[in-house]
Design brief:
Helix content is about 50%, strand content about 15%. The longest helix is centred in the middle third of the chain and has 21 residues. The protein has 17 helices and 13 strands. It is an alpha/beta fold. It has a seven-stranded parallel sheet, with helices on both faces. A six-stranded parallel sheet has the order 10-9-8-11-12-13, sandwiched between helices. Strand 6, helix 7 and strand 7 form a beta-alpha-beta unit. The protein has two domains: about 180 residues, Rossmann fold (3-Layer(aba) Sandwich), CATH 3.40.50.2000; about 190 residues, 3-Layer(aba) Sandwich (Rossmann fold), CATH 3.40.50.
């Protein structure tokens, strides 16, 4: 059984890899500003390394869609009950939630009933989803820390206290020597294509076969191209080993690397990437990309019914409001279509330059580095009862 919460602790809850990264950024800033306060919660290795005492770990929690979540319901429910029980037994100074909305909204409700301030850092995309989430946010969240500037007006309109702190990825993206990374990852290859299938096992299952087949087509058209598959920290190498080995045996020049995603992004001429935070990180490095995403048919049908007023799925396109990067969704995400979009970019210097210009526009929407410190100050105001700045 997990150790109980202490009197002077702030609880931070992240349910997946990107949330663990942002939670670690926030935890380091809180440790700098208020070392007398303890940190506990739900997260992964990065949050633990940043000083968060993990009451529960995110391993095996991250889910995609509706039908994919069913298999995880028992462990999700157990984890939720554990955290709710801990908060009831010893209410923390504040509860900080990071994305992971279906889980975190339930936790927020329990905390607010106890009078615990609830801060949502990296809030869910309410601008794309149902109005019920907006009402829940207004009812149960003390303050939203928005990471995109356009979110501020939306939350104001919904009656939710909000401030823009900027995006925390700017606090963690390292400067990388592109030439050195290329030599290390691909040798003297004429072209390097990065392959990023996602951070969840369900995403690997759905995307990796498509990506490897597309890579084979690209390699057939452009001999000398090398491919590097970048694994997220939440994906074990064993999850891709069989598929990659089979592709390599058939002649695909591909290697797999772990914990080198940013180096792959910076070094690549092009990325084949699953929609998510990785597209925003790649935009910050200015690397051209083709984006894909697939759900189960049931989950996709549900999403089509719930999502309103959004014509794009990738964050760069959403931020600039137009088609900067190609998006291939659901049945449109075929090996042929992926290869065709990638080959068109690789063959056209002007098209790649135009996409880089659009990616710079997206980067400009993220504010300035220091989001972790700005968010930590806001959390401490709520924890100390100071409220708005």
């Amino acid at each position: 059984m997990a150790a109980p919460l202490a009197t002077d602790e702030i609880v931070v809850v992240a349910g997946e890899a990107s949330g663990d990264l942002h939670g670690a950024t926030l935890a380091r800033a809180l440790g700098t500003l208020a070392p007398e306060l303890g940190l506990a919660g739900l997260g992964g290795a990065r949050m633990a390394a940043a000083g968060v005492r993990l009451v529960e770990r995110i391993d095996h929690l991250a889910v995609v869609g509706g039908t994919e979540a069913v298999r995880r319901l028992p462990v999700l429910w157990r984890t939720l009950r554990t955290l709710q029980g801990q908060i009831r037994r010893q209410p923390p100074r504040a509860l900080v939630l990071i994305d992971f909305p279906e889980f975190n909204f339930r936790l927020a409700r329990a905390a607010r009933r106890l009078g615990v301030p609830v801060v949502y850092f990296v809030p869910p995309q309410l601008w794309a989803w149902r109005q019920g989430r907006v009402r829940a946010m207004a009812r149960d969240v003390s303050r939203v820390l928005a990471v995109f500037p356009f979110e501020v007006a939306l939350y104001h309109e919904a009656g939710v206290p909000v401030e823009f702190v900027g995006h925390p990825i700017l606090d963690v993206l390292p400067p990388i020597d592109r030439a050195a990374a290329r030599v290390d990852l691909a040798g003297p290859a004429a072209r390097l294509v990065g392959v990023l299938p996602g951070s969840r096992l369900e995403e690997i299952d759905r995307h990796l076969p498509l990506l490897l087949a597309a890579a084979s087509r690209i390699a057939g058209r452009l001999p000398g191209t090398r491919f590097v598959l970048a694994l997220a920290p939440t994906v074990p190498a064993a999850a891709v080993a069989a598929a990659v080995h089979a592709a390599a045996r058939d002649g695909l020049p591909i290697r797999v690397v772990s914990d080198q995603t940013y180096r792959v992004m910076a070094a690549a001429d092009l990325l084949l990437v699953a929609s998510g935070t990785a597209t925003l990180e790649a935009a910050c490095y200015g690397v051209p990309m083709v984006v894909l995403y697939r759900l189960s048919r049931v989950s996709y049908a549900i999403a089509r019914r719930l999502i309103r007023g959004v014509s794009h799925i990738s964050l760069p396109n959403i931020l600039v409001g137009r088609d900067v990067v190609p998006e291939l969704i659901q049945d449109a995400a075929t090996p042929e279509a992926l290869a065709r979009a990638a080959l068109a970019l690789l063959a056209d210097d002007a098209a790649r330059a135009a996409q880089r210009a659009g990616l710079l526009e997206a980067r400009a929407q993220l504010g300035e580095p220091g989001a972790g410190l700005r968010a930590a100050r806001a959390v401490l105001r709520e924890a100390r009862g100071a409220g708005a700045p």
